[in-house]
Design goal:
The strands form three sheets. A six-stranded antiparallel sheet has the order 2-3-4-5-1-7. The chain has a two-stranded antiparallel ribbon with strand order 6-9. Strands 8-10 form a two-stranded antiparallel ribbon. It is built from seven helices and ten strands. Helix 1 packs antiparallel against helix 2. The longest helix has 30 residues. The protein is an alpha+beta fold. The protein binds a DNA duplex through strand 2 and strand 3.
Length: about 325
DNA sequence: GGAATTTGACCCTA
DNA sequence: TAGGGTCAAATTCC
């Protein structure tokens, strides 16, 4: 199981998770306060930023967690080797006059990476493809993308690969955070339900809503293809199960946000934990109540609300 | 015409 | 030395 090797690293991992989850809870509380105050509701930039921050906190936590838990097919990252040289600076053969920067890279070894799975390659950021490789023992090629703002200094890159067991899904591995402003652009990501960035909770008037669940997932939260075509009967069944769970989650979210009475409802984003991951988590010692049919939300609630008891939730640390 | 993608070559890491 | 990550010229797209 690719767990970090020392007690100190486990403690550090746990600390990072707690920090990120607390940050997310705090930001969610601020967002609730913001939305409950009609005088502040007209401030979309604030709400948007808070929603982005919440999303980021959970992404970070899942990234930290996944670095310790081998969950399903996702291959999770690699611990920072700490300081190998990044560029040899050497170039042996190059035609005269040709600037040769080849070889100026290091093999991926960074803690600043995380994995997502999604039914779409899109994630709302501007990427430029710079390579594609056939990978040994992999049916599908791996595509390499970097931020379009690379030359402004943004070091964000990602690798996208179809999932062998579920080819309608893409596994995306991100490396380095955006240092450009790219991730903060595009208000539609929040204010409209946009399949391009459905991870973000969208707030808009009910009549403008499209309830199609479209969000990709940050591993290990799973979402089925929203289009519904090319789905087997089993997949259709899974989808309707997920939709039922989504409905329950939506009610609980609205209760948490205090939005129901105001008629101001978020476009719900499906955050369903895959059954396989539920089993993984259960086998790791985490059990939710037997009448709990919405494992996704409850799992997350426990992570957020019972941080003091995190040792019981993640005894493997 | 500029931006994005494709693709073969290069070269580092394991 | 094989595999994987990146480069950059050629090609395609808008």
């Amino acid at each position: 199981m690719g767990c970090l090797g020392t007690e100190n690293l486990h403690a550090e991992t746990k600390r990072l998770m707690v920090v990120e989850l607390l940050k997310g809870r705090d930001t969610a509380t601020r967002l609730r306060a913001l939305l409950q105050d009609p005088r502040r509701r007209q401030d979309p930039v604030s709400a948007e930023q808070l929603a982005v921050d919440i999303f980021r906190s959970f992404s970070e936590s899942l990234s930290v967690l996944s670095s310790c838990v081998d969950v399903g097919s996702a291959q999770i990252p690699v611990v920072d080797s700490g300081g190998s040289s990044s560029c040899s600076g050497e170039s042996k053969k190059k035609p005269a006059g040709v600037k040769d920067r080849r070889g100026c890279y290091k093999r991926r070894r960074t803690a600043d990476s995380w994995v997502t799975e999604s039914s779409t390659m899109e994630d709302g950021c501007a990427w430029r493809k710079y390579g594609q490789k056939v990978i040994l023992n992999s049916e599908y090629p791996r595509c390499y993308y970097r931020c379009t703002h690379k030359y402004e200094g943004c070091k964000a890159t990602k690798q996208v690969e179809r999932i062998k067991e579920d080819p309608i899904m893409y596994q995306t591995t991100y490396f380095n955070k955006h240092t450009c402003k790219e991730t903060l652009r595009a208000p539609h990501l929040i204010l409209d339900l946009d399949p391009i960035e459905p991870n973000l909770i969208s707030f808009q008037a009910p009549e403008a809503q499209d309830h199609t669940p479209t969000n990709p997932m940050i591993h290990p939260v799973k979402q089925e293809s929203y289009k519904g075509d090319n789905l087997s009967e089993d997949q259709d069944q899974d989808l309707s199960d997920d939709q039922a769970k989504s409905s329950l989650l939506q009610d609980q979210w609205q209760e948490f946000m205090g939005l129901e009475s105001s008629g101001y409802k978020p476009v719900w984003t499906t955050m369903i934990m895959s059954s396989s991951y539920q089993e993984e988590v259960a086998s790791a010692g985490f059990h939710h109540s037997s009448d709990d049919q919405s494992a996704g939300l409850h799992g997350l609630d426990l992570e957020v609300d019972q941080l003091a008891d995190i040792d019981n939730i993640f005894p493997l640390f």
